[in-house]
Design the sequence.
Protein backbone atom coordinates (compact mmCIF):
# COMPACT_ATOMS: atom_id res chain seq x y z
CA UNK A 1 0.00 0.00 0.00
CA UNK A 2 1.26 3.48 -0.85
CA UNK A 3 2.13 5.57 2.19
CA UNK A 4 2.54 9.28 2.76
CA UNK A 5 4.05 10.87 5.87
CA UNK A 6 1.56 13.00 7.82
CA UNK A 7 4.08 15.86 7.74
CA UNK A 8 7.06 16.36 5.46
CA UNK A 9 9.57 16.28 8.33
CA UNK A 10 8.74 12.64 9.06
CA UNK A 11 10.90 10.21 7.06
CA UNK A 12 9.32 6.77 6.70
CA UNK A 13 11.05 3.53 5.68
CA UNK A 14 13.20 1.08 7.62
CA UNK A 15 14.49 3.69 10.00
CA UNK A 16 11.69 6.20 10.63
CA UNK A 17 12.93 9.52 11.98
CA UNK A 18 12.28 13.25 12.00
CA UNK A 19 14.37 15.81 10.18
CA UNK A 20 14.78 19.49 10.91
CA UNK A 21 15.93 22.49 8.88
CA UNK A 22 19.11 23.42 10.67
CA UNK A 23 20.57 26.89 10.26
CA UNK A 24 24.10 26.49 8.88
CA UNK A 25 25.22 29.61 10.74
CA UNK A 26 23.92 29.08 14.28
CA UNK A 27 22.51 25.55 14.39
CA UNK A 28 18.94 26.57 15.30
CA UNK A 29 16.47 23.88 14.20
CA UNK A 30 13.01 24.26 12.69
CA UNK A 31 10.40 21.79 11.50
CA UNK A 32 8.59 24.21 9.19
CA UNK A 33 9.60 25.60 5.80
CA UNK A 34 11.86 28.63 6.33
CA UNK A 35 13.07 31.73 4.53
CA UNK A 36 15.32 32.87 7.34
CA UNK A 37 16.51 31.90 10.77
CA UNK A 38 14.59 33.51 13.64
CA UNK A 39 17.66 33.25 15.83
CA UNK A 40 20.42 34.74 13.66
CA UNK A 41 18.75 35.84 10.39
CA UNK A 42 20.80 33.26 8.47
CA UNK A 43 19.42 32.20 5.10
CA UNK A 44 20.98 28.79 4.62
CA UNK A 45 19.72 25.56 6.08
CA UNK A 46 20.78 21.94 5.95
CA UNK A 47 18.71 18.88 6.72
CA UNK A 48 19.51 17.40 10.12
CA UNK A 49 18.25 14.10 11.51
CA UNK A 50 16.65 14.41 14.95
CA UNK A 51 17.33 11.85 17.66
CA UNK A 52 14.56 9.24 17.83
CA UNK A 53 14.57 8.93 21.60
CA UNK A 54 14.19 11.51 24.30
CA UNK A 55 12.66 12.61 27.56
CA UNK A 56 9.23 14.11 28.33
CA UNK A 57 9.75 17.74 29.34
CA UNK A 58 6.10 18.75 29.52
CA UNK A 59 2.79 17.03 28.90
CA UNK A 60 -0.94 17.45 29.18
CA UNK A 61 -3.82 15.05 28.79
CA UNK A 62 -6.33 16.66 26.46
CA UNK A 63 -9.92 15.75 27.22
CA UNK A 64 -11.64 18.45 25.15
CA UNK A 65 -10.55 18.76 21.53
CA UNK A 66 -11.88 19.39 18.05
CA UNK A 67 -14.52 17.04 16.68
CA UNK A 68 -12.91 13.95 15.18
CA UNK A 69 -9.93 13.90 17.52
CA UNK A 70 -10.12 10.88 19.83
CA UNK A 71 -9.86 11.98 23.47
CA UNK A 72 -8.29 11.72 25.92
CA UNK A 73 -4.85 11.86 24.38
CA UNK A 74 -1.44 12.86 25.72
CA UNK A 75 0.24 15.87 24.09
CA UNK A 76 3.82 16.52 25.02
CA UNK A 77 7.11 18.24 24.43
CA UNK A 78 9.95 15.76 24.06
CA UNK A 79 13.58 16.72 24.51
CA UNK A 80 15.33 14.66 21.83
CA UNK A 81 18.98 15.14 22.65
CA UNK A 82 18.68 18.92 22.72
CA UNK A 83 16.05 19.33 20.01
CA UNK A 84 12.52 19.89 21.30
CA UNK A 85 9.77 18.01 19.48
CA UNK A 86 6.02 18.38 19.79
CA UNK A 87 4.18 15.06 19.67
CA UNK A 88 1.54 12.84 21.19
CA UNK A 89 2.59 10.13 23.59
CA UNK A 90 1.03 6.83 22.50
CA UNK A 91 0.88 3.18 23.49
CA UNK A 92 0.31 4.12 27.11
CA UNK A 93 -2.92 4.67 29.09
CA UNK A 94 -3.64 8.43 28.86
CA UNK A 95 -3.62 9.20 32.56
CA UNK A 96 -1.28 10.81 35.07
CA UNK A 97 -0.45 7.43 36.62
CA UNK A 98 1.17 6.23 33.39
CA UNK A 99 2.72 9.39 31.97
CA UNK A 100 5.32 11.32 33.91
CA UNK A 101 7.67 14.26 33.50
CA UNK A 102 11.15 13.01 32.71
CA UNK A 103 9.84 9.74 31.26
CA UNK A 104 12.07 8.20 28.57
CA UNK A 105 10.33 7.76 25.23
CA UNK A 106 11.12 6.74 21.66
CA UNK A 107 9.68 7.55 18.24
CA UNK A 108 7.07 5.27 16.73
CA UNK A 109 4.90 5.53 13.63
CA UNK A 110 1.38 4.34 12.88
CA UNK A 111 -1.31 4.83 10.23
CA UNK A 112 -4.07 7.41 10.73
CA UNK A 113 -6.24 6.64 7.72
CA UNK A 114 -6.47 5.80 4.04
CA UNK A 115 -7.63 8.28 1.41
CA UNK A 116 -9.88 7.69 -1.61
CA UNK A 117 -6.85 6.79 -3.75
CA UNK A 118 -5.84 4.06 -1.30
CA UNK A 119 -2.88 5.94 0.15
CA UNK A 120 -2.23 5.51 3.83
CA UNK A 121 -1.11 8.50 5.90
CA UNK A 122 1.40 7.68 8.61
CA UNK A 123 1.97 9.88 11.64
CA UNK A 124 4.53 9.75 14.41
CA UNK A 125 4.23 9.67 18.16
CA UNK A 126 6.44 8.73 21.07
CA UNK A 127 6.00 5.65 23.24
CA UNK A 128 7.59 4.63 26.54
CA UNK A 129 11.14 3.43 25.89
CA UNK B 1 7.67 71.67 35.39
CA UNK B 2 6.28 68.62 33.63
CA UNK B 3 7.82 65.28 34.52
CA UNK B 4 6.93 63.74 31.18
CA UNK B 5 4.86 61.13 33.01
CA UNK B 6 1.55 59.90 31.66
CA UNK B 7 -1.40 59.46 34.00
CA UNK B 8 -4.66 57.59 34.02
CA UNK B 9 -7.29 60.25 34.49
CA UNK B 10 -10.38 58.11 34.12
CA UNK B 11 -11.00 54.39 33.78
CA UNK B 12 -14.01 52.11 33.59
CA UNK B 13 -14.83 48.44 33.30
CA UNK B 14 -18.26 47.06 32.43
CA UNK B 15 -19.58 44.14 34.39
CA UNK B 16 -18.09 41.01 32.88
CA UNK B 17 -20.52 38.24 32.04
CA UNK B 18 -23.28 37.68 29.52
CA UNK B 19 -24.55 40.75 27.69
CA UNK B 20 -26.85 39.31 25.01
CA UNK B 21 -28.77 42.58 24.67
CA UNK B 22 -25.73 44.73 23.89
CA UNK B 23 -23.71 44.73 20.68
CA UNK B 24 -19.92 44.71 20.83
CA UNK B 25 -19.90 48.41 19.90
CA UNK B 26 -22.44 49.23 22.60
CA UNK B 27 -20.30 47.46 25.21
CA UNK B 28 -17.25 49.42 24.02
CA UNK B 29 -19.30 52.63 24.16
CA UNK B 30 -20.42 51.90 27.72
CA UNK B 31 -16.79 51.46 28.81
CA UNK B 32 -15.56 54.52 26.89
CA UNK B 33 -18.33 56.81 28.15
CA UNK B 34 -17.68 55.50 31.65
CA UNK B 35 -13.99 56.33 31.42
CA UNK B 36 -14.70 59.82 29.99
CA UNK B 37 -17.19 60.52 32.78
CA UNK B 38 -14.75 59.21 35.38
CA UNK B 39 -12.11 61.59 33.98
CA UNK B 40 -14.65 64.44 33.61
CA UNK B 41 -13.57 65.07 30.01
CA UNK B 42 -15.16 64.59 26.59
CA UNK B 43 -14.47 62.96 23.23
CA UNK B 44 -13.66 66.41 21.82
CA UNK B 45 -10.73 66.58 24.24
CA UNK B 46 -9.19 63.32 23.01
CA UNK B 47 -6.21 63.48 20.67
CA UNK B 48 -5.98 59.78 19.87
CA UNK B 49 -8.20 56.69 20.08
CA UNK B 50 -6.72 53.21 20.31
CA UNK B 51 -9.24 50.39 20.14
CA UNK B 52 -8.77 46.67 20.60
CA UNK B 53 -11.16 43.92 19.56
CA UNK B 54 -10.39 40.51 18.09
CA UNK B 55 -13.68 38.82 17.31
CA UNK B 56 -15.85 41.68 16.09
CA UNK B 57 -14.78 41.93 12.45
CA UNK B 58 -12.44 44.93 12.51
CA UNK B 59 -12.64 48.71 12.58
CA UNK B 60 -13.80 48.87 16.19
CA UNK B 61 -12.28 52.32 16.74
CA UNK B 62 -14.25 53.94 13.94
CA UNK B 63 -17.43 52.11 14.91
CA UNK B 64 -16.98 53.39 18.45
CA UNK B 65 -16.48 56.95 17.21
CA UNK B 66 -19.74 56.71 15.30
CA UNK B 67 -21.43 55.64 18.53
CA UNK B 68 -20.00 58.28 20.88
CA UNK B 69 -18.26 61.07 18.96
CA UNK B 70 -16.64 61.55 15.55
CA UNK B 71 -14.00 64.23 15.96
CA UNK B 72 -11.57 63.26 13.22
CA UNK B 73 -8.74 62.20 15.51
CA UNK B 74 -6.34 59.40 14.55
CA UNK B 75 -7.68 55.95 15.32
CA UNK B 76 -5.48 52.92 15.83
CA UNK B 77 -7.20 49.54 15.71
CA UNK B 78 -4.84 47.22 17.52
CA UNK B 79 -4.64 43.44 17.81
CA UNK B 80 -2.15 41.58 19.97
CA UNK B 81 -4.00 38.45 21.09
CA UNK B 82 -4.74 38.54 24.85
CA UNK B 83 -2.41 41.54 25.24
CA UNK B 84 -4.62 43.65 22.95
CA UNK B 85 -6.02 45.89 25.70
CA UNK B 86 -2.58 46.62 27.12
CA UNK B 87 -1.37 47.34 23.58
CA UNK B 88 -4.19 49.82 23.03
CA UNK B 89 -3.33 51.57 26.28
CA UNK B 90 0.35 51.62 25.43
CA UNK B 91 -0.45 53.08 21.98
CA UNK B 92 -2.23 56.01 23.63
CA UNK B 93 0.60 56.40 26.15
CA UNK B 94 3.16 56.51 23.33
CA UNK B 95 1.23 59.22 21.49
CA UNK B 96 1.29 61.38 24.60
CA UNK B 97 4.96 60.61 25.27
CA UNK B 98 5.72 61.59 21.68
CA UNK B 99 4.10 64.96 22.34
CA UNK B 100 1.41 64.47 19.71
CA UNK B 101 -1.46 65.11 22.10
CA UNK B 102 -2.39 65.64 25.75
CA UNK B 103 -5.29 63.20 26.04
CA UNK B 104 -5.80 59.69 24.72
CA UNK B 105 -8.57 57.11 24.96
CA UNK B 106 -7.87 53.37 24.95
CA UNK B 107 -10.66 50.80 24.72
CA UNK B 108 -10.79 47.01 24.68
CA UNK B 109 -13.95 45.02 24.09
CA UNK B 110 -14.96 41.44 23.36
CA UNK B 111 -18.10 39.34 23.17
CA UNK B 112 -17.12 35.77 23.96
CA UNK B 113 -19.91 34.30 26.08
CA UNK B 114 -20.37 30.68 25.06
CA UNK B 115 -17.39 30.70 22.67
CA UNK B 116 -15.87 27.38 23.75
CA UNK B 117 -12.33 26.48 22.73
CA UNK B 118 -10.63 29.38 20.98
CA UNK B 119 -7.79 27.60 19.18
CA UNK B 120 -7.55 24.10 17.91
CA UNK B 121 -11.26 23.87 18.58
CA UNK B 122 -12.36 24.01 14.97
CA UNK B 123 -10.83 22.31 11.98
CA UNK B 124 -11.43 22.29 8.28
CA UNK B 125 -12.71 19.03 6.91
CA UNK B 126 -9.94 16.71 5.85
CA UNK B 127 -9.80 16.32 2.08
CA UNK B 128 -10.50 12.95 0.51
CA UNK B 129 -6.95 12.61 -0.77
CA UNK B 130 -3.85 13.17 1.34
CA UNK B 131 -2.17 16.25 -0.15
CA UNK B 132 0.78 17.81 1.66
CA UNK B 133 0.23 21.53 2.21
CA UNK B 134 1.52 24.41 4.28
CA UNK B 135 4.84 25.02 6.00
CA UNK B 136 4.91 21.54 7.57
CA UNK B 137 3.84 19.73 4.42
CA UNK B 138 0.97 18.28 6.42
CA UNK B 139 -1.73 16.14 4.80
CA UNK B 140 -4.32 17.15 7.43
CA UNK B 141 -4.58 19.52 10.41
CA UNK B 142 -1.90 18.60 12.92
CA UNK B 143 -3.75 19.73 16.06
CA UNK B 144 -4.53 16.63 18.08
CA UNK B 145 -2.39 14.41 15.87
CA UNK B 146 0.95 15.98 16.73
CA UNK B 147 0.46 17.59 20.11
CA UNK B 148 -2.22 20.13 20.89
CA UNK B 149 -2.96 23.70 19.88
CA UNK B 150 -5.81 24.16 22.35
CA UNK B 151 -5.13 26.90 24.86
CA UNK B 152 -5.91 24.78 27.95
CA UNK B 153 -3.49 22.15 26.64
CA UNK B 154 -0.73 24.60 25.74
CA UNK B 155 -0.86 26.34 29.11
CA UNK B 156 -1.14 23.02 30.94
CA UNK B 157 2.21 22.06 29.41
CA UNK B 158 3.67 25.44 30.39
CA UNK B 159 2.83 24.73 34.03
CA UNK B 160 4.06 21.13 33.81
CA UNK B 161 7.31 22.30 32.23
CA UNK B 162 7.89 24.51 35.28
CA UNK B 163 7.34 21.45 37.45
CA UNK B 164 9.84 19.45 35.42
CA UNK B 165 12.42 22.20 35.77
CA UNK B 166 12.00 23.00 39.46
CA UNK B 167 9.83 20.25 40.98
CA UNK B 168 7.03 20.60 43.51
CA UNK B 169 4.04 20.93 41.17
CA UNK B 170 1.00 18.68 41.38
CA UNK B 171 -2.65 18.56 40.36
CA UNK B 172 -3.45 19.69 43.93
CA UNK B 173 -1.17 22.70 43.73
CA UNK B 174 -2.67 24.01 40.50
CA UNK B 175 -6.18 23.42 41.84
CA UNK B 176 -5.30 25.40 44.98
CA UNK B 177 -4.31 28.39 42.83
CA UNK B 178 -7.73 28.25 41.24
CA UNK B 179 -9.34 27.89 44.67
CA UNK B 180 -7.70 31.17 45.71
CA UNK B 181 -8.88 33.12 42.69
CA UNK B 182 -12.45 31.85 42.91
CA UNK B 183 -12.46 32.75 46.63
CA UNK B 184 -11.26 36.26 45.76
CA UNK B 185 -14.01 36.65 43.15
CA UNK B 186 -16.74 36.48 45.80
CA UNK B 187 -15.87 40.09 46.70
CA UNK B 188 -15.96 41.41 43.13
CA UNK B 189 -19.45 42.31 41.92
CA UNK B 190 -18.11 42.90 38.39
CA UNK B 191 -16.79 39.35 38.05
CA UNK B 192 -18.56 37.03 35.63
CA UNK B 193 -18.60 34.30 38.29
CA UNK B 194 -18.59 34.87 42.05
CA UNK B 195 -18.86 31.30 43.24
CA UNK B 196 -16.42 29.92 45.77
CA UNK B 197 -15.34 26.33 45.05
CA UNK B 198 -13.85 23.78 47.41
CA UNK B 199 -10.62 22.12 46.36
CA UNK B 200 -12.50 18.87 45.74
CA UNK B 201 -15.08 20.62 43.60
CA UNK B 202 -12.32 22.09 41.46
CA UNK B 203 -10.49 18.78 41.09
CA UNK B 204 -13.65 16.79 40.37
CA UNK B 205 -15.04 19.21 37.79
CA UNK B 206 -14.86 18.48 34.07
CA UNK B 207 -11.28 17.81 32.97
CA UNK B 208 -10.32 19.99 30.00
CA UNK B 209 -6.57 19.42 29.67
CA UNK B 210 -4.82 17.82 32.64
CA UNK B 211 -4.11 19.34 35.08
CA UNK B 212 -6.58 22.09 34.12
CA UNK B 213 -10.21 21.31 34.95
CA UNK B 214 -12.95 23.71 33.86
CA UNK B 215 -12.80 26.09 36.87
CA UNK B 216 -9.03 26.30 36.35
CA UNK B 217 -9.57 27.80 32.86
CA UNK B 218 -10.31 31.43 32.08
CA UNK B 219 -13.98 32.10 31.66
CA UNK B 220 -15.18 33.19 28.23
CA UNK B 221 -17.51 36.14 28.70
CA UNK B 222 -18.53 39.54 27.36
CA UNK B 223 -17.01 42.75 28.61
CA UNK B 224 -15.22 46.00 27.90
CA UNK B 225 -12.83 48.35 29.62
CA UNK B 226 -11.53 51.81 28.72
CA UNK B 227 -9.04 54.33 30.04
CA UNK B 228 -8.45 58.04 29.50
CA UNK B 229 -4.77 58.96 29.75
CA UNK B 230 -3.38 62.45 30.12
CA UNK B 231 -0.01 64.18 29.95
CA UNK B 232 1.62 65.43 33.12
CA UNK B 233 1.58 68.99 31.79
CA UNK B 234 -2.17 68.92 31.14
CA UNK B 235 -2.95 67.19 34.42
CA UNK B 236 -1.33 70.06 36.31
CA UNK B 237 -3.93 72.43 34.83
CA UNK B 238 -6.95 70.37 35.91
CA UNK B 239 -9.22 70.59 38.95
CA UNK B 240 -7.99 69.26 42.31
CA UNK B 241 -10.63 66.51 42.23
CA UNK B 242 -9.35 65.25 38.89
CA UNK B 243 -5.74 65.43 40.05
CA UNK B 244 -6.48 63.66 43.32
CA UNK B 245 -7.84 60.55 41.61
CA UNK B 246 -5.28 60.45 38.80
CA UNK B 247 -3.03 57.37 38.83
CA UNK B 248 0.53 57.57 37.60
CA UNK B 249 1.65 55.10 34.95
CA UNK B 250 5.12 54.55 36.34
CA UNK B 251 5.97 51.94 33.74
CA UNK B 252 4.41 50.89 30.44
CA UNK B 253 6.21 48.04 28.70
CA UNK B 254 5.45 45.73 25.82
CA UNK B 255 7.71 42.84 24.79
CA UNK B 256 7.69 39.93 22.37
CA UNK B 257 9.55 36.66 22.70
CA UNK B 258 13.22 36.46 21.70
CA UNK B 259 14.25 33.26 19.94
CA UNK B 260 15.18 30.37 22.18
CA UNK B 261 15.41 26.65 21.54
CA UNK B 262 11.89 25.14 21.75
CA UNK B 263 10.04 28.47 21.58
CA UNK B 264 8.37 27.45 18.32
CA UNK B 265 7.43 24.04 19.74
CA UNK B 266 5.77 25.21 22.95
CA UNK B 267 5.27 28.97 23.33
CA UNK B 268 7.69 30.37 25.86
CA UNK B 269 5.70 32.80 27.99
CA UNK B 270 8.47 33.08 30.55
CA UNK B 271 11.33 34.98 28.96
CA UNK B 272 9.27 37.82 27.51
CA UNK B 273 7.41 38.27 30.79
CA UNK B 274 10.66 38.36 32.74
CA UNK B 275 12.09 40.84 30.21
CA UNK B 276 9.00 43.04 30.50
CA UNK B 277 9.06 42.90 34.30
CA UNK B 278 12.73 43.85 34.45
CA UNK B 279 12.16 46.83 32.17
CA UNK B 280 9.07 47.88 34.11
CA UNK B 281 10.76 47.76 37.52
CA UNK B 282 13.63 49.78 36.11
CA UNK B 283 11.34 52.37 34.50
CA UNK B 284 9.26 52.73 37.65
CA UNK B 285 12.16 52.65 40.07
CA UNK B 286 10.33 50.13 42.22
CA UNK B 287 10.95 46.47 42.97
CA UNK B 288 8.63 43.50 43.39
CA UNK B 289 8.84 43.96 47.17
CA UNK B 290 7.20 47.38 46.80
CA UNK B 291 4.05 46.01 45.16
CA UNK B 292 0.82 46.12 47.16
CA UNK B 293 -1.12 44.06 44.62
CA UNK B 294 -0.65 42.30 41.30
CA UNK B 295 -3.14 41.40 38.61
CA UNK B 296 -1.44 38.80 36.44
CA UNK B 297 -2.55 36.76 33.45
CA UNK B 298 -4.04 33.61 34.99
CA UNK B 299 -5.61 32.45 31.74
CA UNK B 300 -5.19 29.02 33.34
CA UNK B 301 -4.22 28.02 36.88
CA UNK B 302 -1.05 26.52 35.42
CA UNK B 303 -0.10 29.94 34.02
CA UNK B 304 -0.44 31.84 37.29
CA UNK B 305 2.28 29.73 38.90
CA UNK B 306 4.95 30.48 36.29
CA UNK B 307 4.22 34.21 36.35
CA UNK B 308 4.96 34.47 40.10
CA UNK B 309 8.46 33.58 39.03
CA UNK B 310 8.53 35.56 35.78
CA UNK B 311 7.41 38.75 37.53
CA UNK B 312 10.08 38.08 40.16
CA UNK B 313 7.58 38.01 43.01
CA UNK B 314 9.62 35.07 44.32
CA UNK B 315 13.19 33.79 43.90
CA UNK B 316 13.81 31.96 40.61
CA UNK B 317 12.42 28.44 40.87
CA UNK B 318 10.56 29.29 44.05
CA UNK B 319 6.99 29.77 42.80
CA UNK B 320 5.60 26.66 44.48
CA UNK B 321 6.94 27.55 47.92
CA UNK B 322 5.86 31.15 47.38
CA UNK B 323 2.28 30.11 46.66
CA UNK B 324 2.22 27.56 49.49
CA UNK B 325 3.29 30.31 51.92
CA UNK B 326 -0.04 32.03 51.32
CA UNK B 327 1.66 35.14 49.95
CA UNK B 328 -0.72 35.56 47.01
CA UNK B 329 -4.00 35.36 48.92
CA UNK B 330 -5.59 38.76 49.53
CA UNK B 331 -4.28 38.80 53.11
CA UNK B 332 -0.79 37.72 52.03
CA UNK B 333 2.35 39.73 51.42
CA UNK B 334 1.71 40.24 47.66
CA UNK B 335 -1.97 39.70 46.90
CA UNK B 336 -2.39 38.34 43.35
CA UNK B 337 -5.62 38.54 41.38
CA UNK B 338 -7.85 39.91 44.10
CA UNK B 339 -10.34 40.58 41.29
CA UNK B 340 -10.82 36.82 40.97
CA UNK B 341 -8.54 36.69 37.96
CA UNK B 342 -9.41 35.47 34.51
CA UNK B 343 -10.64 32.18 35.95
CA UNK B 344 -13.63 33.82 37.65
CA UNK B 345 -13.72 37.52 36.75
CA UNK B 346 -13.65 36.37 33.13
CA UNK B 347 -11.50 36.92 30.07
CA UNK B 348 -13.12 38.95 27.27
CA UNK B 349 -9.81 38.89 25.44
CA UNK B 350 -9.26 42.44 24.19
CA UNK B 351 -10.77 43.98 27.33
CA UNK B 352 -8.53 42.09 29.75
CA UNK B 353 -5.41 44.25 29.36
CA UNK B 354 -7.32 47.36 30.48
CA UNK B 355 -9.64 45.64 32.96
CA UNK B 356 -6.66 44.49 35.03
CA UNK B 357 -5.43 48.09 35.14
CA UNK B 358 -8.90 49.23 36.24
CA UNK B 359 -8.69 46.76 39.11
CA UNK B 360 -5.31 48.06 40.25
CA UNK B 361 -6.39 51.71 39.89
CA UNK B 362 -9.53 51.03 41.92
CA UNK B 363 -7.41 49.87 44.87
CA UNK B 364 -4.89 52.70 44.49
CA UNK B 365 -7.76 55.17 44.59
CA UNK B 366 -9.11 53.50 47.73
CA UNK B 367 -12.38 52.72 45.94
CA UNK B 368 -12.26 48.91 46.15
CA UNK B 369 -15.14 48.56 48.61
CA UNK B 370 -15.30 45.13 50.22
CA UNK B 371 -12.23 43.88 48.41
CA UNK B 372 -10.06 46.98 48.96
CA UNK B 373 -6.42 46.18 49.69
CA UNK B 374 -5.93 48.71 52.48
CA UNK B 375 -3.30 51.35 51.93
CA UNK B 376 -2.34 50.18 48.43
CA UNK B 377 -0.04 52.66 46.71
CA UNK B 378 1.77 50.60 44.02
CA UNK B 379 0.40 47.86 41.80
CA UNK B 380 1.33 45.86 38.72
CA UNK B 381 -0.83 44.62 35.85
CA UNK B 382 0.40 41.89 33.50
CA UNK B 383 -1.01 40.28 30.36
CA UNK B 384 0.25 37.71 27.89
CA UNK B 385 -1.01 37.34 24.37
CA UNK B 386 0.10 33.99 23.04
CA UNK B 387 2.37 34.21 20.07
CA UNK B 388 3.61 36.14 22.06
CA UNK B 389 3.14 39.66 23.40
CA UNK B 390 3.54 40.68 27.02
CA UNK B 391 2.30 43.91 28.56
CA UNK B 392 3.37 45.06 32.01
CA UNK B 393 2.16 48.29 33.58
CA UNK B 394 3.17 49.58 37.01
CA UNK B 395 0.74 52.04 38.53
CA UNK B 396 1.22 54.36 41.47
CA UNK B 397 -0.86 56.58 43.67
CA UNK B 398 1.02 59.85 43.60
CA UNK B 399 0.03 63.42 44.16
CA UNK B 400 0.56 66.07 41.50
Sequence:
Amino acid sequence: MAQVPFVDYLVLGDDPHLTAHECTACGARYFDRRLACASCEGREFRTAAVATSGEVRAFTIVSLAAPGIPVPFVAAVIDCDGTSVRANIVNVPPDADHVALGMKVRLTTFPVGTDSAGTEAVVFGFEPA
Amino acid sequence: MSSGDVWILGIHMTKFGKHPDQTTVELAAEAALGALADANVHMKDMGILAAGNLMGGGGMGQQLQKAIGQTGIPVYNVANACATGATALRTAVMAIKAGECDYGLAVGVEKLAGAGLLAGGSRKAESDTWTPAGPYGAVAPIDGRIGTETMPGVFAQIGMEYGHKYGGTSFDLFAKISEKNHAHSTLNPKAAYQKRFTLDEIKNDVMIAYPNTRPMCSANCDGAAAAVVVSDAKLRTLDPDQRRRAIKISASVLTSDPWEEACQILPNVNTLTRNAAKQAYEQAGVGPEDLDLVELHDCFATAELVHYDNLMLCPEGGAVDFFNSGATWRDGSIPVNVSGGLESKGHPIAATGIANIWEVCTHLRGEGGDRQIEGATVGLAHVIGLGSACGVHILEKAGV
